[in-house]
Amino acid sequence: MSNRVAVIGAxxxxxxRRAQESPGELAAQAVQMALEDAGLEMKDIxxxxxxxxxxxxxxxxxxxxxxxxxxxxxxxxxxxHYVGGGTGVFSPxxxxxxxxxxxxxxxxxxxxEKMSPCxxxxxxxxxxxxxxxxxxxxxxxxxxxxxMEMARFMHTYGYSEExxxxxxxxxxxxxxxxxxxxIAEKITVEDVMNSPMLSTPVKRRDISPVSDGACAVVLxxxxxxxxxxxxxxxxxxxxxxxxxxxxxxxxxxxxxxxxMAAHDAYKMAGIDKxxxxxxxxxxxxxxNYKALHHMNGLFMxxxxxxxxxxxxxxxxxxxxxxxxxxxxxxxxxxxxxxxTGLMKIAExxxxxxxxxxxxxVKKSVRTGVAQAWGxxxxxxxxVVMSGENRLPTTASMWNKMTSKDLPGTALKKVEDxxxxxxxxxxxxxxxxxxxxxxxxxxxxAGKLRASKCNxxxxxxxxxxxxxxxxxxxxxxxxxxxxxxGTVQTLTRSYVDWDSSMLPKGKERxxxxxxxxxxxxxxxxxxxxGEVKVKDLKVGMRVKAVWKPEKDREGGILxxxxxxxxxxxxxxxxxxxxxxxxxxxxxxxxSFPGAIPLNYVYTAGVGGTRFFEDLAKGKLSGTxxxxxxxxxxxxxxxxxxxxxxxxxxxxxxxxNPGSGFVSSFTDVxxxxxxxLLSKPKTVVQVVFPKTVGSLFxxxxxxxxxxxxxxxxxxxVRSRQAGxxxxxxxxxxxxK
Amino acid sequence: xxxxxxxxxxxxxxxxxxxxSYRELIAKAAATAYEDAGLEPEQIxxxxxxxxxFISGYSISDEYVPDQLAMVxxxxxxxxxxxxxxxxxAVMQIRTGRFKTLVVxxxxxxxxxxxxxxxxxxxxDPTYNRFGVSPHYLAGIEMQQFIDSSGHSAEDIAEIAAFxxxxxxxxxxxxxxxxxxxxxxxxxxPLATPVTELMFARPAxxxxxxxxGNEEAAQEMANDPIYISGTGWGxxxxxxxxxxxxxxxxxxxxxxxAYEEAGISVPxxxxxxxxxxxxxxxxxxxxxxxxxxxxDFLPFINPDGGSQGMxxxxxxxxxxxxxxxxxxxxxxxxxxxxxxxxxxxxxxWRGIPTDSAAVVVLDAEGGDNE
Lengths: 734, 370
What we know:
The complex is a heterodimer. By secondary structure, chain A is of the alpha+beta class. Chain A contains 17 helices and 38 strands. Chain A has three domains: 344 residues, 3-Layer(aba) Sandwich (Peroxisomal Thiolase, Chain A, domain 1); 167 residues, no CATH class; 127 residues, CATH 2.40.50.140. Chain A is globular, with a radius of gyration of 28 Å. Chain B is α/β, with parallel strands linked by helices. Helices cover 36% and strands 20% of the residues of chain B. Chain B contains 14 helices and eleven strands. In chain B, the strands form two sheets. In chain B, strands 3-2-4-7-1-8-11-10-9 form a nine-stranded mixed sheet. A two-stranded antiparallel ribbon of chain B has the order 5-6. In chain B, a hairpin with a 2-residue loop joins strand 5 and strand 6. The interface between A and B is large, with 136 and 114 residues.
């Protein structure tokens, strides 16, 4: 059976809108604090696991690999895991596996998110979470589907916008005591209600902010925990569940996947009645309604009555019987996605060991639960923790921690530091396979098509070639269904996919529509049109408005929108079996796609020093006492010892003309694989009495020949960015 | 706690797979694995997938995992690693005692991606390492250093690529089997000197799915179990300015862990076959050094033709090797069967610009070496 696992230390950066630090530097700062808090050094850590959500935020493919140095994973067993927005609370679960399996004694769990590099807006990255063929053409972003989920939640459980606004007030107020908080503030329900409407019923202050930040915890087995930590907080239960990606096909009002994950965690922790056995709750709250939505899941209460009673009795605050989000949550502390979930785990560690300072809840607490959620509204991750002792107030650095004590440098604008832009050219051509090609052919013919599983008898939209609920039972029967249906939920949106506001006076109506002839729960997402605002409502009957046949291309946009049924307009639920598309080289369809994002990166603290030097024709390394060596290029942490370095105080002058080529290559293609008109030479250059090297392009004059050992000099540049790191051969003195 | 392989499935590999969506590709491999394990998916506790966002084309691509595995609403997560990394995580998960059976999945639909090099270029550090040239430049830098320090020549390295491509001709699943010589490889188009085009594995499509379980599950259900006797993984420095480019530190860390767990002290004498990442031909030799294998062992390395023969399956590379290893240890690898293979060593590397690797040891016969 599993070994017991405890949190014995935590660290985090400030959560900020735009950090100067690079992603690795943010992670390293959190790691250094966590190690200090745990009283351990990097050599004591057996394994590292890292959580970060989409690579599209940081703007780095293989972002987990890129973060190895900052996370302390160099020359260690290192794994990166993710489950979208649920990653933050899944991270300690994966760390728990490392230790509970008996494979490792101490596992460092690190989470990081740097959302600010992503343009035109970090929210734009979310367009690529939707199905590339059936949903991305609708220009969807998260706010749209949250608007629809929030509307469904309110419709089902009877919460008003004003009531949900109380959660924003609560969380932002709680965050006033949190040292990492980005948008802690004392506000009123009116402030929330008066904030700009984005996508009904979602308003600006219903939502957590875009954030950069990192968080880390140290997990240890029971023996280490009791030796090193006076107040370890144990992980008693874990649960994680992932629902179908067909988000239109399930109940949005109640998070069944959260309830199932909670059930797993409670069973492991020996909890029968969570509302009685758990003292403190950290549900994920990227939107105010989500805190309540998730609490229903954590209470495993589809009726919502348990929570409603507590909400009406005002018992969810720090002085109440069931405190939620005492940290301030994503709404108050900020939401660097993966780091937020782990911040909630850290909050349980603080609260259950008496280290929460001004945020310590009034009641005596022994057991807490943290939860995160994400992906296409489909994943629930849950951790139950318990403490045994409370540290004396004076014994913890966290009790008196202030914002000034936490690392992380907030920038007002990226132009304040060396920075550089990058526009990736990511293009795809999706093979849609038999089922989706049949679907797309249907659009061209002005038909909506489904496939039917003969085991569960579901008529499925979009059609599948197998049934995901019937052990992959093959599905071979395809049908034309009706192009009429019923609106299950909707949102009036004022924002585009990239979070920019639509032109004044414009709005777009998104809806989930269950289709006549498909199974009850089968819906698609599309736009509504030809409808007066006063007539928009859940339950309205609608019909597809098709483009003229000559304009149809075989895609979801062949339907212009769905309009309300006219009075007396007849509908039917009859279906007609059809022959599916036969796949051959003519009919096998691919669908074009691209990721329409661009990035602006800060150079980081180390990079700032490097490019400021480069502009002056200088080069400096950073002295590291752990290695007793000068690191090249300049660094604000040492990845070997995971100690902080100061790029200015520890700077050591290096002669930029003293380099030697240690390796070189002539490259014949550009970054996209196109042939260059003439090859470029990339060199790795080392400098005397330093550890490390620089890579750059070698500028060759006619007749120049490069070899290993060739003497080179770094070329001065006033422009920042890797393409401006250049070398030239040093001419031999005559 | 012993962990065993209960079933394996593959769909691929293909140079391209038009007509199959990624979902259908995976579902076919999954159905084969479940059939091989003699299980219905509803009997399995959860899943681990191995994916990267920009390769799949989705952000948080884990959201598209459960359906085609029939793992809807089960415990599922994603590892951004080679299949062998995901497998290692799944083995840990079973060893917590909380899970009895799991499915591990990885796929590659390279034919969906129109700008592959661009994606790899995007993996380079944005502050110091993106020069606008092919990301193969780092392989060129590595190979140059490896030649300088190892004593191997470019011709030796070319022979590795030619050998793997040639032996893939005996593997009916390998799309890139071809009778090549070292001279053909050397003479092919230069990518980033000294790396030539035929030294780099060509992209391909495939999905690999396996079912693993604890010994209790194996005794109850598995028809032909193979034992996972060691797992290890490790990463070298991600800062390429401070990484040695002629050795694989990540492989050293991974091998040490896996060998200790499997009770292996002299791998060359104790394993019968090995699968060693050959995405670039020089990397096979570099990895062999770190794994403690010398060139005498080359005839027993990558009997399936490796990535050179089966194609670069990205996160699924280790999965294709794993599928072949299980077939070898069961004695049903047909035309490329290595006679008497009872112990297999598997190595996976994550490709440029990483130095992250995983190592797994499989045994045809039981024995928990913990």
